[in-house]
Amino acid sequence: MSFRKVVRQSKFRHVFGQPVKNDQCYEDIRVSRVTWDSTFCAVNPKFLAVIVEASGGGAFLVLPLSKTGRIDKAYPTVCGHTGPVLDIDWCPHNDEVIASGSEDCTVMVWQIPENGLTAPLTEPVVLLEGHTKRVGIVTWHPTARNVLLSAGCDNVVLIWNVGTAEELYRLDSLHPDLIYNVSWNRNGSLFCSACKDKSVRIIDPRRGTLVAEREKAHEGARPMRAIFLADGKVFTTGFSRMSERQLALWDPENLEEPMALQELDSSNGALLPFYDPDTNVVYVCGKGDSSIRYFEITDEPPYIHFLNTFTSKEPQRGMGSMPKRGLEVSKCEIARFYKLHERK
């Protein structure tokens, strides 16, 4: 008789979360109070950027990773926007370049000095104007340099050439309602978006066409998220009709039925998924939760395998995920998150 495997083989069965000690945290940061479901935080191997509460405009802090502890009230910020900043994203090709989208309808691209800020930064390197309402999403192209996608509350997706500050593509007829998030695929040939009309769309930006669309990916009316996985599948988070939080995995070739659908719990914070293409692990952080759940995505049913939960005392307001090249692999670190609390 063949001995049936009771426990699934997995390299990540014993992965655990380990918080750093208090002296390595950043304290006294007034995290932004904007009611927008972005992560409020972006991080790369050199800097941590956090959107902060600012009077009379929008600002974010850029801190070198070495500068931990209490952050002085007078610490210089990046403060060129005239309205609150909604989203920030570090350029994957240059660790000193960051893009920000704001309620003032503009996208700005900033060059951060090599050793961090010594004075407030008010002049962006590039100013991108083209949206008519606030810009809630900015995300860099994963493979092409100087290509930036922005999406606004005018339901328009713009793709920019940052070097020349020109619009490359303008996609204004594909989304009938507010866009919740946008995610590029691995090589940047397609992107997927989750929209308030409950549809998940896969879009070819160069042709400006819809490759695939799934209406009512999640029945609930609350915000959804969709991200591309390395093999081209799409992972979504959303809410069921009974307001239970769900995860789903979709095959773009056939969007009739999800490959897998799991219900988590009935909490009401939006779920923010972070994906690691090297290990095929998805980390799901709920806004206002105090836990991070992680799941392994595999090729055999049930496709989404729950691994573990990291729980802490304080709820998170936002989350930043460190790219792979900033991890200490010698200590077997496979992911690092920067978790925003109320003030630290």
From TrEMBL:
Pfam families the UniProt entry points to: DUF1899, WD40
Localization (cell): Cytoplasm, Cytoskeleton, Stress fiber
A Gene Ontology biological process term: actin filament organization
Gene3D superfamilies membership: YVTN repeat-like/Quinoprotein amine dehydrogenase
Domain (DUF1899): residue spans on this chain: 5-69
Annotated TM spans: none
Molecular function terms from GO: actin filament binding
Positions of WD repeats: 78-112, 128-170
Any one of the GO CC terms: stress fiber
Main location: cytoplasm
Entry-linked InterPro entries: Coronin (IPR015505), DUF1899 (IPR015048), WD40/YVTN_repeat-like_dom_sf (IPR015943), WD40_repeat_CS (IPR019775), WD40_repeat_dom_sf (IPR036322), WD40_rpt (IPR001680)
UniProt subunit comment: Forms homooligomers, but does not form complexes with the other coronins. Interacts with Arp2/3 complex components, including ACTR2, ARPC1B and ARPC2. Binds actin.
UniProt function note: Regulates leading edge dynamics and cell motility in fibroblasts. May be involved in cytokinesis and signal transduction.
Protein name (Swiss-Prot/TrEMBL): Coronin
